[in-house]
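User: Continuing from earlier, I have the next pair ready.

Assistant: Great, send them over.

User: Here they are, in order.

Assistant: Folding the first of the pair now:
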Amino acid sequence: MHINDSDRRPFPALSSDPQSVRTRVEALERAMENLIRVPGLNRGVGLDVLLDFVPVVGPTAAAVLGAYLAWEARNLGMPKSAVARMAGNIGVDWLLGMIPFIGAVPDFFFRSNTRNLRIIKRHLDKHHPGTGTVNVNARR
């Protein structure tokens, strides 16, 4: 099995090529939505949900981190309609998170960063097919 050098680095390369962008946005989405696994639920919890427990500041910080995905999308030259849809996802996520403590529950199910990553991946797969990866889980 070949391991990419980018897989070993804690931070993906900061260049603007599509492969580096893909690596960065995937890493951010993983941190925001799937940082730790919740036993029995088969679902991950990330910084997005955890930050919702800090009223006002937490959801705002999560929205700023989520806006980074939209910024990367804009830098890739994605259509304004796609970036606007991403901004809408971030806004809904922020509004849900603004409900003190209770906001973490709907945020657990409405994963704006995952939705936005999907939008970016669709664009990359269409316009930069060489950036695609195949994810295979090895089982014994």
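And the other member of the pair:
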Amino acid sequence: MHALALIALFLVTLAGMEGFAYVMHRWVMHGPGWVLHASHHRPRTGFFEANDLYFLIFAAPSILLLLGGVQLGWGDWATAVGAGIAAYGAIYLGFHDIIVHQRVAHRYVPRGRYMKRIVQAHRLHHVVETREGNVSFGFLVAPAPETLKRQLAGLRAGIRAPTGPDQPPAR
């Protein structure tokens, strides 16, 4: 394949992964896959949680495509698609696990409009502790926080109690 076609295939795969992530999060993780994902909606008690197994599950196709493209002669298309999936995984890891959930200590504070929007959208997703009644299932593309707050106001089931110094203790 021509180099520009491979770059385009990589970029299309990278962009398409957001749609795939939305579908998997909305209808698998908050559906039959809740058995693993529920750990992500509760306070973490250690460094790892059952939800981390999804990292391995979603990395498998990327690894297979990269292996096939580089070592098994499947073609450059497989390498480009595998690399696009891996790139989305790396971006997701950086935004989701490091920036939003701070699983690695850092001092970064989102200041730009885009970063503030995706961080706040994900935090609003986490105010619901149950698998139903959630908002914002994508990650790199997120609705405006005001929209999500209106949606949450209409749901009210399974919403986590407010915490903080000005709130009464949870019962």
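Worth noting for the second one:
The chain has a mean pLDDT of 90. The longest helix spans residues 3-29.
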